[in-house]
Amino acid sequence: MSRNADKDCRSDVHRKPEMDAGRSVDSKIIQDVLLNLSMDRYSKWDESAFKQEEKAFRNRFKTEEDCVQFIYQAKWPDGFSCPRCEHRQAYVIRSRRLPLYECRSCRHQTSLIAGTVMEGSRTSLCKWFLAFHLVANTERGTNAVQLSSFLQVTYKTAWAILHKIRQALSQADHKQPLTGVVKGGTAFHRPFRSAASVLGLYPEQRPVFVVASLDKGAVPQQVKIKTVRPEDMEDGRIYRSAGEHFIKEHVSPDAIDVDIETRRYHYQRVPSLRNYLRKARAWTNRVFNGIGPKYLQHYLDEFCFRLNLQLQKVPIFDHLARACLRTSG
Q: NCBIfam families, per this entry (predicted)?
């Protein structure tokens, strides 16, 4: 759709699957199940490579002081700056677990982790940074059960750590709208819980936009996968105004060409977008055994955060850690 699409016009996004390239409902579902299993098989991580990466990570962050230095440089790359008056000098109070900085001008005190996902947490910085490392790992990823065992913390603590990280990544994603040539379409994210689900109608499936910024060769440089708001749907249909809302929230006003198709499985000649959604679906089901609608968007944002850094060929850990240091979650 284009920017000036009529709000009251509805798309045929929910045409019966048998109309999609002449395939039947069962054959379409079975094909997706087989694809999911195939991706599961090829997405097995290299355990030896992971151990090498973990060893390198632990050498980089051996102590709490190593983590403190990283946070300080990320938070104040040009030196201390008071969050209240912007004065550049402070007294350092070291009587607490983490340094406390008192502004020499206004006497305002601020913690090193104030305004980060770690604010108010009693978990050690080394464990937080290890969680950043595990989430940043593109092949493995992690869930709360695995993280709980890895960090030797309770499941509740592990879940809270991951939730705060994903909230930070969602906020970082929102601050980076799509630019330039923007194309995409709609599809469905649905869980694969068992072979029996082949016969089901996927009551938990969620319509999503899969949209990308493209380079001159029509290769995706940034991808967003966003769930459609409930108010933009009715009786199994999606309003075209849903596309307008997506453009308003996630596309830069300076974008030079925006074309988002609202019919199901139409991706404006960018077939790789469907593959990205399938990979996201395979990842959520392999690592988390499926995700409910309440938190699905946070998991999709996490997937896209790593994917986009891969597409841009930049280090994932440092970007992820800095995203977590810019928000209180």
A: transpos_IS1595
Position of tokens 């459609």? Answer: 228
Q: Model confidence over 135-176: pLDDT tens digits? A: 998 666 789 999 999 999 999 999 999 999 999 999 999 999
Q: How many CA atoms lie within 13 A of 156 on its CB side?
A: 1
Going by DSSP bridges, is the β-strand pair 257-264/181-189 parallel, antiparallel, or unpaired?
Answer: parallel
CB 212 within 8 A of CB 281: no
How far, in Å, CA of 302 to CA of 312, rounded? 16
What is the spatial distance between Cα 329 and Cα 243, in angstroms, rounded to a whole number? Answer: 28
What is the percentage of the chain residues whose pLDDT exceeds 90? 57
Contact 80, 106 (CB under 8 A): no
In the DSSP assignment, the letter for residue 107 is: -
* CB-side neighbour CA atoms (13 Å) of 220: 25
Q: Which residue has 């944002």 as its token pair?
A: 301
Query: Structure pTM?
Result: 0.80
pLDDT in tens, 113-139: 999 999 999 999 999 999 999 999 866
What tens digit of pLDDT does each residue of 71-111 get?
A: 999 999 999 999 999 999 999 999 888 999 999 999 999 99
Tell how strand 90-93 and strand 237-238 pair up. unpaired
Give the C-alpha separation, 223 to 213, whole Å.
Answer: 7
